[in-house]
Amino acid sequence: MNFLDVDIKPNRNYAQHLDLMDRIQKAERKTFPKDESLDIKQELRKANTELTVVLANTDREKNLAAYMLYVRLHKITLLHKVCVLEDYRRQGLARNLLLRLKGRLQRQGCEKLQLWVDEARQPARGLYRSLGFEVVTRAKDYYSPGRNGLQMVLDLTSTD
After folding, report:
1. Helix (H) or strand (E) segment spanning residue 45
2. Cross-strand bridge partners of residue 114
3. Cα separation values, 81 from 3, 49, 113, Å
4. Coil, helix or strand for 1?
5. Residue 65, exposed/middle/buried by CB under 10 A (0-12, 13-18, 19+)?
6. What pLDDT score was predicted for residue 14?
7. pLDDT score recorded for residue 94
8. How many CB atoms neighbour CB 29 within 10 A?
């Protein structure tokens, strides 16, 4: 099995991927709590929002494996969502998605990549730390009572 990346951008190639968008929305509802699940189609209608999708390319079909939603502002990119579907976890997909995004943003002159993560999500926090993200803010009850959020930032101007 190999993996195929698809970049979906508003007002460019959105319409040709409506079936894929439905599969992403279903995965979003299954993976995240209701109050954290995004309406992906609605998000893509917003300016500067992009979606990168990873498809698992088998002999018979292309299965949704992962996706990443982010908003590109002038010098800062806000990472809203990274999701790897359960059957494809622990294969490096999230790391590869983030490394490709980091390289693309650096080439485009972006200076920072910013995200929020649930303080209790140790695997996600470990991944982000291993890529160079640093915690800059802790927000008590950010997600819900008892669920704190950590704002993490990756400096894209460093040469490491």
Report:
1. none
2. 78, 153
3. 19, 11, 12
4. coil
5. buried
6. 58
7. 93
8. 13
User: Token digits for 67?
Assistant: 């996706």
Listed in sequence order, the residues at least 6 apart from 1 whose beta carbon sits closer than 8 Å to its beta carbon are 56, 57, 58
Average pLDDT per 10 consecutive residues for the chain, totaling 160 residues: 64 67 90 86 86 83 89 93 92 92 93 96 94 96 91 87
Quote the pLDDT of residue 12.
Answer: 57
Phi, psi of 9 (to 5 degrees): -125, 140
Token reading at 106:
């650096």
Tokens of 20: 């894929």
3-state secondary structure 121-132: CHHHHHHHHHCC
The three-state secondary structure class of 91 is coil
93: burial class by Cβ within 10 Å (0-12, 13-18, 19+)?
buried
Q: Which residue has the tokens 């819900």?
A: 144
* Cα–Cα dist 91/84, whole Å: 10
